[in-house]
Specification:
homodimer; about 325 residues; alpha/beta; Spore Coat Polysaccharide Biosynthesis Protein SpsA, Chain A; 10-stranded mixed β-sheet; two-stranded antiparallel sheet; 7 helices; 15 strands
């Protein structure tokens, strides 16, 4: 079989120069039948391929270790990262590559099917180009989420294949999930399903470890939210979690009940990107992350709206918790 | 290098069973730097990869022969087809595969870099599930174009890679273009640029061969068009080329001047998919083909609006003609 070499885009990178060669038959013809590509509740049994996508501004070893403890078969997992083009990104890349190298050069059974690292084109695209203290103000948040949406699209369009059954969006600051995360979430067999992102912390008043809700982007629409939107200018957006903009939406973050079943579902209208599983066909039909106001929503919340416009239902798992890193 | 075999999705297909094996290193890590991925006016010189995408309901040998006469280097061209799941599609697939086989098993210099054939999931997705006579009524057109948008998205998401510089949308009924089509169109170095689709016919009155405009989806917005849109219900759409819905938009189809330069450009707000070149970054940033009304536009016209919302400009080449098959 003749040897095929991808155009080397990355000659200044630190590692793996010799890993870029693919052996592809030169008379390459690929056939894919979307009719035989499934995403089912028995994903692992049916050998369905899962693409885990993570926009990464900072490498947390806890994120990586959590990924490594997932029990879904690694030969069915591809992972894609997108990293901002700035100094912080250089450091992130170095740390990420070091850990990837350990796994992908380890014994065959330990390796993921494929790992793709994408570096952003411009520093101005960086989804973390904001100071930490600015990150949660409303105006700054709009710009940040628009850039995050751009990054998600670049990552998605570059990595999804005609053989991908599921896409798992997992943020780089998610550091703790059940081992059976992918099996658990695929089992619900929903077009879009989002886990509830909480955070562990030390409760100073009660002097003990505790948990608190973290991601407020998973919500069900309220009539007040719709009313608010109807009065807005074309380019205004609603972002959840700001006192300036009370929406009275039902937030999944506040719907957690410790005593109820973790497999309980609720219908949602907006989702976050913390830990959200999407059937690949939803993306393939056209659902992306709007960088511009789409029904007054952007990024993952706009994506949920787009999935619904494409005819898909969106769900959340209020009692299925995953954890954001302590800051 | 260990041997890697894609999961065979297509065991009932007619040909090429033995062509599906890819040799990929098992410790596969791919690095792509979007900063070094360019789309420039010197595309061929800079070895920029072009992805030609064609939704194909009927195989016309004239389309294929036209593709083969393009002078852009074939080692830089990937082609993707999506074919409906119906009887017509079976025939199309057979004819297409026969011709592809000739080229991709021919001598190395004749081969395209890669050809991907995608078969749609369901018969109901078929973008040609309508009788020929219905194809041009307004109501039917809406549904047809929504399905066409779906097909374009499925094809795009399945074939675009992190190494793709340009995407050329070429309809299956385009049978005549200049040999230098890709060089000519990339030379304009625009985010989106559309050729003017005409049709050859025999003028019975004048008893001679003649040409006439064919694709009316390339247009610049008018104040009346905007006014029309502002009065429409959320899910109504404007489709160009129907007497029921006069928009007074400036149509590129009517802007052709035989005596003017073929390299002349005009700014557009809507495009058709007949022969439209897109910088891959426009798609990668999120521009897809809305299957639902997006600013009262769908499919390629909605795509143009989305590209503009993402900050890209859209152009047409009024005097650069390509030809639709005679029906």
């Amino acid at each position: 079989m003749p040897k095929y070499i991808y155009k080397k885009k990355t000659k200044n990178w630190l590692f793996f120069q010799n890993k870029q060669e693919d052996l592809i038959p030169q008379s390459h013809i690929a056939h894919y039948d979307l009719n035989t590509l499934h995403s089912t509740e028995d994903a692992a049994l049916n050998k369905e391929q899962v693409l885990i996508l993570t926009p990464m501004q900072t490498f947390h070893i806890e994120y990586w270790n959590n990924l490594l403890q997932l029990s879904y078969p690694r030969e069915l997992i591809e992972i894609g990262f997108i990293i901002p083009r700035n100094k912080n990104g250089d450091e992130t890349l170095k740390n990420l590559e070091r850990e990837i190298k350990k796994i992908q050069t380890d014994k065959k059974e330990s390796r993921f099917k494929k790992i793709t690292i994408l570096r952003q084109e411009q520093e101005s695209d960086s989804f973390n180009a904001l100071g930490e203290k600015d990150r949660h103000s409303l105006e700054v948040q709009k710009e940040r989420r628009s850039k995050m949406a751009l990054s998600r699209n670049q990552l998605l369009f570059s990595t999804i294949g005609p053989y991908t059954s599921w896409v798992l969006w997992m943020d780089a600051d998610i550091v703790e999930t059940p081992t059976s995360l992918i099996q658990d979430m695929t089992f619900h067999n929903k077009p879009v399903v989002s886990a509830n992102v909480f955070q562990r912390y030390f409760n100073e008043d009660e002097k003990k470890d505790a948990i608190r809700p973290y991601d407020f982007n998973n919500w069900a629409e309220s009539s007040l939210g719709l009313q608010l939107a109807s009065k807005m200018g074309e380019d205004e957006i609603i972002v959840e979690g700001y006192a300036e903009l009370a929406t009275y939406r039902l937030l999944m973050a506040h719907s957690y009940k410790a005593t109820d079943s973790p497999s309980e579902t609720m219908e949602l209208d907006g989702v976050g990107g913390g830990c959200t599983l999407v059937k690949a066909e939803v993306h393939r039909d056209g659902a992306m992350f709007p960088t511009f106001p789409f029904y007054h929503l952007i990024e993952t919340e706009g994506f949920a709206k787009m999935a619904k416009r494409l005819g898909y239902a969106v769900y959340g798992l209020p009692n299925y918790l995953v954890y954001h890193i302590e800051e």
